[in-house]
Each structure stands twice: as C-alpha cells, then as structure tokens.
Amino acid sequence: MSRSGPFGFQSAQDELDETTCVWDSHVIRPSKNDRVPSGRPKVMYMFPELYTTEDCVSPVEGADAQLCRSNCTFRPAVPCDTDIYNICNLLMMESQLNLPADSYQALDLYLDLRNTIRSSL
Which domain of life is it from (predicted)? Predict the structure, then answer.
C-alpha cells in the first residue's frame, strides 16, 4: 500500500495518499446538528449537491498554477550528494543491508553506513 522512497522513507505525497485512503474508508456519523452533513468524505466532496451544501472549490487558472510551480523548490529524487548516495547503495548491497522500516532502523543504517565510509577514508 505505501511506497518508500530512497533509503525507505515515505514521500510526502505517499503519506497524503495513504491518509486519504484511510480517511475515505470512514463514514462521518450524523450529528445532532441537522446542518452538519454526514457520509463518506470523498462522496461528500465530489457531490455536494447530494448533501444540500455548496461546492466551495475555487477554479485556478493554468497560468497561476504554473507560476506557483516555478516558485516552488521540489525535493530531488536523490536526498543527498549523488556520489554518497551511490556509495551507500553499493555498501548496502555488499553488506546485504535492508531498507529501514522505521526511524530506529533508519538511524542504525545511517550510523552503520557512516562508520563504514569514515573507516574507508
């Protein structure tokens, strides 16, 4: 279900996608306040007229979206210096190290790779 980026870390988009799936699998319960809609969040968003609410989506011009993109700094696919990244991948393959599943394993992997590289210098 979740995909991992370099070194096993989940990208922000992957986290958002996973949160959306979890959120959309729930049902918002009816409230005592009859003005509060209930139902599945995705259906409520896509078809507001079914819930006698208004569509609050604001259309954006393509030029405005492009201006925002040109002013953004996107993370590169490689999270560090390319040479270090390649060395770490080689060391992981040689040592049969696995991608970390949590932050503690990531820290252990980092320390192991760091020590291996430093001792090679």
Answer: Eukaryota
